[in-house]
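Example is below:
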Amino acid sequence: MTTASMMRPVAIALVNIADPYHVYRWCRRWGVTETQLRAAVRAVGREARAVEAALLRAKAPPRILASETRLREDRTAGDD
């Protein structure tokens, strides 16, 4: 067995937004709407891993920095 025969290309899953069935399946898999799926594909391309990562980032709650928390506490402290 040669080295070339051991190295096989890895299949990359692509999101095909032109096929209604594929759109349905990806939306069901990730729990998103068709609009959200299409927006993610426009933003990052058709590779499924990149689309999934973009959708997860979009669903994540915004991060609050420690400095923002202190500012909020300072503003509410004077309300007593």
Notes: The helical segments are 3-6, 20-30, 34-44, 48-59, 66-77. The two ends are 78 Å apart (CA to CA). The mean pLDDT is 80. The chain is about 60% helix and 0% strand.
